[in-house]
Amino acid sequence: MGSERVEMRKRQMQVHQEAAASVLQARHRMGNTPTNASNACCFCWCCCCSCSCLTVRSEDETIQRSTFERRTEGTNNCEESPKPTLEDARSWPMSFEKVMKSAAGRGCFRQFLRTEFSEENMMFWFACEELKKETNKTVVEEKVRQIYEDFISILSPKEVSLDSRVREVINRNMLEATSHTFDDAQQQIYTLMQRDSYPRYMNSTAYTDLLKSLEEPPPEP
């Protein structure tokens, strides 16, 4: 069992190192190469290496977490979330697609995810949707880099859970960033929410309380 864990850890480190190399190449082409990129051994700008420079990881992580929180502070309401109608809310148990196609549904579901400390899944999914609408190559490359740092990097407090296969796909896609760089990852997170969080939301007091509030007649003036 111990040897299996060691091998698994080695595999994870290999995936992260490949991700660092891929993103480094992409950033270099964008003219945004980190100042320490000349060190072939070290990709500390994303802390994906296993060399001795990881001694500064804790300090770097603190700085990056602080930067991330400031950056996302204004994006917590990245999508307008209108109040759902009773008819809309009653349709959500029919399918997860009903929830995700409704702006109000996404807003209510996201509030539930926040209580489960998995709001980053919806944030990542929505960021990918916005990315796919972009056609300007320069903007696409910048958004791809931002999404990677916000949701894929192992240092991010909002890192989403992806398997090694999908991470390898991202590594390859980062060599030539497009609006579909994260399609596989987005689908995996969508499936995760559908199979895991969605059933719990449908059986939660948050959803039943929402229905009750919508069924109550408005107060008389």
Automatic annotation (TrEMBL):
<dbReference type="InterPro" id="IPR016137">
    <property type="entry name" value="RGS"/>
</dbReference>
<dbReference type="InterPro" id="IPR036305">
    <property type="entry name" value="RGS_sf"/>
</dbReference>
<feature type="domain" description="RGS">
    <location>
        <begin position="95"/>
        <end position="211"/>
    </location>
</feature>
<dbReference type="Pfam" id="PF00615">
    <property type="entry name" value="RGS"/>
</dbReference>
<dbReference type="InterPro" id="IPR044926">
    <property type="entry name" value="RGS_subdomain_2"/>
</dbReference>
<protein>
    <submittedName>
        <fullName>Regulator of G-protein signaling 20</fullName>
    </submittedName>
</protein>
